[in-house]
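My current task is to audit a protein record that another person submitted. Alongside the sequence sits a line of tokens, each denoting a local backbone shape. Where you disagree with what is written, explain briefly why. This is what I was given:
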Amino acid sequence: MSQQPKGELTIQVLAMPADTNPSGDVFGGWLLSQMDIAGGVFCRKIAKGRVVTVALDSTTFNLPVFVGDTLCCYVELVKRGRTSISVRIEAWVTREYDIEKSIKVTEGIYTYVKVDQDRHPVPLPENE
């Protein structure tokens, strides 16, 4: 039985040649930034406002991402604090010519904090 993504599909993006290093490999930093964007989108809905990334608590790169892969980031809530939200983000790809199969390439725990206009932490809204 194959593994399935956990969490909410938050973003999908196509890996392009501009996302590679001189060796032709997709940058790990590009992948991390896509995961960070997905986490921010997810947490902004919970916070009902602006959030900032404060920590990447762990990240595991399992497999590479290639040009032509469709990257899908899935986000699930791990912990909700007074001002902070921790989420698990899984990055999955479908390869350019094998769109029937999804492969988990990276996963990590990210923490975001709700902030005001002056970038000071503020409490999250009450759970609904």
